[in-house]
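Predict the 3D structure for this chain.
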Amino acid sequence: MVDLKKHGPTIALLFTMLVMLSYGIEWVRVTVGQGMNVLLGPFIDPNGLGVPFFVMILILSGITGLYSSLVQKYTIDYEKMQETQAKMRVFQKEFREAQLSGDEKRIKKLQGKQERMMQDQLDMSRQQFTPMAIILVLSVPIFFWLLLRLPAVGTPTTIASGIVMPFIGAVTLSDIAFWIVPAWILWYMLCSLTISQVIRKSLNIGGL
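Done. Predicted structure below.
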């Protein structure tokens, strides 16, 4: 039987890679997007609530920011992470001092400690794979839906399909807003980063 406690992070990493690969499979992307459209479509359909697409992106970025923060809060031991980071800083300072002083005995002793410190850091890194997989499973269907319902390139800019951005002006969400970044992704990133910081601060989640 597989030891989930031991191999869980590795399984989560492999699953995360599988989910990311699904983005390149069109029928998977479209099928999942159509499934999500049953739930989210009525919000933006003209015969439904008629919510502008940029407002829908704002709402969804808030939802993803909320569950991402909650998943991290309850799956990552931030106290242990900060403790490990503090120990590593102290160790690095001691090791640097030993090297500068040429204290071979102390260096050898610290080298033995270094292996344990590196293992602790590796364990903390592996711990983050599980929340990453959970967040991706929840987020990928939303992105597939956004791609499905995104206004086609060349669509006239209206309140339903466009957005007014600082220094750019009115653009359709599928248009390029900056360098190679489409307007909808730029808008999503701005909303997500801002809302996530507020949520993490209000929930007192570590790692800020």
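Residues 78-101 form the longest helix (24 residues).
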